[in-house]
Amino acid sequence: MTFLEFTVPPFPVFIAAGEGVFKKGETHVRRVFPVFDLLYVKEGVLHITESENAFSVEAGEYILLSPGLEHYGTKGSEETTSYSWLHFEGADYEVTETAGNNWAELRRKKGSFEEPARYRLSLPQKGKVRRPQFMAGQFSVLTDDSAENSDLPLRKQILFEELLLHLQKEAFQIPSAKERVAWEAARYLQEHYQEKTTIKALSSALHYNQDYVTRCMQQVLGVTPGQYTNKVRMTEAKRLLSATNDKMGAIADAIGMEDPTYFSKLFKQIEGISPLEYRKFVSRKTD
Q1: Same domain for 206 and 151
Q2: Domain containing 242: what range?
Q3: pLDDT digits (tens, 9 = 90+) for 210-255
Q4: Same domain for 25 and 151?
Q5: pTM for the predicted model, two decimal places
Q6: CA-closest candidate to residue 83, choices 137, 42, 23
Q7: Which of 11, 77, 194, 255 fits a disulfide with 81 by CB distance 3.0 to 4.6 angstroms?
C-alpha cells in the first residue's frame, strides 16, 4: 500500500471543500493542482488516473492526489457518481510503500520542555472508510459556507485535522496502553542493547514504573526486559559469528556483555549450541 507521510507539527492547512457529481459518461477534467486533493466517493465509482497510475475509487473509498502531479478521469462513469472533495496544503511530504504496522511507530522525535514531539502523519493514498457517518459529519461543516460565524474558519481547520487523524487511525492498528508500553520498551532495548541497560534506565526513559514496564512486556511479548535484551544480543551475536572472524571476547563486548564466558553460556542456553559450534555450522552451510 502506498502512503503519503507528513511530519507534524505543523499540521497541513485546510483550504476548501465541496461536493461534486459526475453523471453517467462524464469524466474528471485533466488538471495539475498546486495543493493536495482528497476525493471521497459517496455513490458510484470514480475512475481517475494520477501520473499514469489508474484507480477505481468505489463508494465509501477515498483517494489522495498529490500537488504538482497531473490527474484526470480514466474513463466515463458507468453511473451517477457523487463525491466530496477537500483541498489542503502541507509542508514537505514523502511517498512510501510501508508506514509501519502499529500506532506506536508513528512517533518520530520525542519532545522536550522546549520543543514539541514530532510525529508521522501517514495517510494511505487510497483507502476504505469504515465510518462513513463520521466523514459525512465532518464534510457537512467543511462544505458549509452559509454561516457567518467568525470562528468557522478555525473550526474547519480543527475538523480537518480530526478527519486526517481519523483516516490514519483506520489504516493502523491502535494498540492498547499495555501494547504501546511493551513496543516502546522493545524499541528502546533494540537501540540500547550494546549498553549496560538496566530496568531502572528503561523505566526512566519511558517514564513508567519498573514493575509496570515488566508486566506489559510479559503480557504482550511473553518475556521480561532482560530476556528481550538477551534475545536481541544473541541475534546480533549470530550475525557477527557468521560475518566476521572476531574472537568471543570481541563479540561479547560488541553486544554489551563484559564477560565472554557468560556470553558463551547464555548463547548456548538460548540457541542450544555454543558460539563456536554455531560458527562452524554456518561456515559449513556457506561452503
Answers
A1: no
A2: 177-286
A3: 999 999 999 988 999 999 999 999 999 999 998 899 999 999 999 9
A4: yes
A5: 0.60
A6: 42
A7: 77
